[in-house]
Design goal:
Layout (H helix, E strand, L loop, with lengths): L9 H12 L3 H4 L1 H12 L1 H11 L1 H19 L5 H30 L4 H30 L1 H20 L10 H7 L5 H4 L3 H32 L3 H29 L1 H22 L3 H30 L4 H24 L3 H26 L4
Helix pairs in contact: 1-7, 1-11, 3-6, 3-15, 4-5, 4-6, 4-15, 5-6, 5-8, 6-7, 7-8, 7-12, 7-14, 11-12, 11-14, 11-15, 11-16, 12-13, 12-14, 13-14, 13-16, 14-15
């Protein structure tokens, strides 16, 4: 998860990439956007491979793709090359890898799946806290291309060591056996109204937070004159909030259900939107708003898997959550294309009014469907 979560450090090498390839700000976000799309849409493939060939072989395929992605990125000479090496190969590899620990943790922890899942995916959020500093040091010392190469070597050794501990537990009780062998087929999930509610909520939340994550460092550089070093510290701080959101909302979803956790999340989005609309030029206010957005990014990466597990069971959980997770890529695509054709202020209004709409929809559907499982 720490290796896969380097996507959240993208804004730390966005500016050096623009300088090396002579890109505009709108062009340089393309690899990030492509990465998120292929990452999200590779999740169903991850679920299929896990059921077909097992967790260890799936993990091995993903690990080789991610390592290959970083090392090949060190030889790029155009935006198209980087889109292919980082966006497509890296995105697919990360999408396949992401499903492995989620499957494993759903089987290892029977009674506290939400909290366990939240803690596990916290590694993905915590990644940029560590990798932003690594990239900063590598870029300053060696330049952008050599930084990619050395990071690829680091990734290889980490994934190689982890390979020997990828395993699923032996089921010990009849209750666990029954739980692990029951669940919805994916075709049935796609006919269930709860899937579309969960999916739409996940899309909107990702369109808010992922887009904000893509320009966090750049925003502080442009508006508050931060340098790359100071912006890396901001990014690392935001990564902590992203990380904390995952176990906290994993527990909340376990304890209070999908309705309550999603309502809390969209209220926080509303507060962030309100701050941006009315105090966007204040450093302290902008920092608070970004904190809420990053915290909520972590929140939904716990709410979505736990709710999928609760709604549709464990038997085909990897495949079912793979389908749900495509909302992540669609949300990123919507949000970043919105940014491409507008500006920061319009995007902040989108968060402000969009969160109001989602709160209303959440409340109406709760009364109709009794979300709280």
């Amino acid at each position: 998860m720490l290796v896969g979560g380097t996507v959240y450090s993208y804004s730390i090498f966005k500016k050096p990439l623009e300088e090396y390839l002579n890109l505009s700000s709108s062009q340089s976000v393309t690899p990030f956007q492509i990465f998120l799309l292929f990452f999200a849409f590779s999740m169903p493939l991850s679920g299929y491979l896990i059921e077909k060939i097992g967790v260890k072989k799936t993990y091995l395929i993903a690990s080789l793709m991610i390592t290959f992605s970083w090392i090949c990125s060190s030889f790029i000479n155009s935006l198209t090359c980087f889109v292919f090496t980082y966006g497509i190969i890296g995105g697919i590899g990360t999408g396949i890898l992401y499903g492995v620990p989620l499957k494993i943790v759903s089987l290892w922890f029977y009674d506290v799946k939400g909290l366990a899942t939240g803690i596990t995916v916290a590694g993905f959020g915590l990644s940029s806290f560590i990798t932003a500093q690594i990239f900063k040091l590598l870029i300053i010392k060696y330049g952008i291309l050599t930084a990619f190469f050395y990071f690829g070597i680091i990734v290889f050794f980490i994934l190689f060591i982890c390979y020997f501990n990828v395993q699923i537990p032996q089921v010990s009780t009849n209750k666990e056996k029954e739980s692990y062998h029951t669940g919805y087929e994916t075709s049935d999930v796609l006919r269930d109204k709860r899937f579309y509610i969960l999916y739409s909520f996940f899309v909107i939340s990702c369109s808010f937070s992922l887009t904000a994550a893509s320009f966090t460092a750049s925003y502080f550089i442009e508006f508050f004159k931060f340098d790359i070093s100071k912006s890396s510290y901001i990014l690392s701080f935001m990564a902590i909030l992203n990380t904390l959101g995952r176990p906290i909302f994993g527990y909340i979803t376990d304890r209070f259900g999908f309705y309550f956790s999603s309502l809390v999340s969209f209220v926080m989005y509303f507060i962030a939107g309100f701050i941006f609309v009315f105090s966007y030029n204040s450093l302290h206010a902008a920092t608070v708003a970004f904190i809420l957005l990053w915290f909520n990014l972590g929140a939904w990466l716990a709410i979505a898997p736990v709710s999928t597990m609760r709604f549709f069971g464990l038997l085909h959980y990897s495949k079912n959550y793979g389908i749900v997770y495509t909302a992540y890529g669609i949300g990123a695509f919507i949000g970043m294309n919105f940014m491409h054709f507008s500006n920061y202020n319009l995007f902040f209004y989108y968060i402000f009014y969009g969160s109001i709409v989602m709160i209303i929809i959440d409340l109406i559907n709760y009364k109709k469907l009794n979300y709280n499982f």
